[in-house]
Design goal:
The protein is an all-alpha fold. It is 76% helix and 2% strand. Helix 1 packs antiparallel against helix 3, helix 4 runs antiparallel to helix 6 and helix 8 packs antiparallel against helix 9. The chain starts with 10 loop residues before the first strand and ends with a helix. Belongs to the G-protein coupled receptor 1 family. It is found in: Cell membrane.
């Protein structure tokens, strides 16, 4: 590999494209996923902002989820793709610290937001008469603020501690970004106490929101089961199943990485599982939550109709 100017404090990634025989294919797949995630989430935000029919609490929360996903995937994937093209794998200490902080803040905000979105669906289906009160605009803003506060607290608490440990001479991170467990393996000091603190944080940020998701959808499925319409039941079950599947992948992969003892998983497994909640989830969220339902597809058709309308007029003029 070509040598580049590096500082003694720089870290080196082992990367996701470490096998030459599959690196080109993986690069193409990750590039497609990245572009798809940006486009899908960008379209969602545009439609929700411009279509009055989507100005509801559910889509308000979804627009913020799309914003988080766009920022989330952009903190990791562009650096990884550029490094592959330039044949370099290094990241500065400041860059690693920034990436670690942004990653923790954004993923933390998403953990909380997904739990609150499940609560929103529970209220809409199980308590429809109280929905306007329980999910008022003020409550929605409080949910968004709470999600960002929880994520930011995690970033501000864990990042300074993680990056303050003395690191050994080998500064090679066996990962494709600065994720806490991979960085901590380079520390020369005892990290047992800190790992316990991080475990407690993960319980608060993973288990509690995930429990809210499971409880909310369990109540929703119970209510749906009592519906008289067979077709309505099938549609509701299919929607709930797709939502729970994506959320379970997101929370499950993170729980495996952060809450399972290190002796139960290898760095290679960590990298594969990290792909689920850092690369795949930002692409799947808009496809599963939004672009599959009639409200969003209707808004997309109206937006395309508005776009085509002026084009026809301009062609007629010329």
């Amino acid at each position: 590999m070509e040598e580049h100017n590096t500082s003694p404090t720089d870290f080196t990634f082992m990367g996701l494209f470490d096998r030459k025989e599959t690196s080109g294919l993986l690069f193409a797949i990750v590039s497609i996923i990245f572009v798809t995630a940006l486009m899908a989430n960008g379209v969602m935000i545009f439609l929700i902002q411009t279509d009055l029919r989507l100005h509801t609490p559910m889509y308000f929360l979804l627009s913020h989820l799309s914003s988080i996903d766009m920022m989330y995937i952009s903190t990791i994937v562009p650096k990884m793709l550029v490094d592959y093209l330039l044949d370099q794998r290094t990241i500065s200490f400041v860059g690693c610290t920034a990436q670690h902080f942004l990653y923790l803040t954004l993923v933390g905000a998403e953990f909380f937001l997904l739990g609150l979105m499940a609560y929103d669906r529970y209220v809409a289906i199980c308590n429809p008469l109280r929905y306007p009160v329980l999910m008022s605009r003020r409550v929605c803003w409080m949910m968004i603020a709470g999600s960002w506060f929880g994520g930011s607290l995690d970033g501000f608490l864990l990042t300074p501690i993680t990056m303050s440990f003395p690191f050994c001479n080998s500064r090679e991170i066996n990962h494709f970004f600065c994720e806490a467990p991979a960085v901590l393996k380079l520390a020369c000091a005892d990290t047992a106490l800190y790992e316990t603190v991080m475990y407690v944080c993960c319980v608060l940020m993973l288990l509690i929101p995930f429990s809210v998701v499971l409880a909310s959808y369990a109540r929703i499925l119970t209510t749906v089961h009592c519906m008289s319409s067979v077709e309505g039941r099938k549609k509701a079950f299919a929607t709930c199943l797709s939502h729970v599947t994506v959320v379970s992948l997101f929370y499950g992969a993170a729980m495996y990485t952060y809450m399972l003892p290190h002796s139960y998983h290898t760095p290679a497994q960590d990298k594969v599982l990290s792909v689920f909640y850092t690369i795949l989830t930002p692409m799947l969220n808009p496809l599963i939550y939004s672009l599959r339902n009639k409200d969003v597809t209707g808004a997309l058709k109206r937006a395309l109709g508005r776009f085509k309308g002026p084009q026809r007029v301009s062609r007629g003029v010329f």
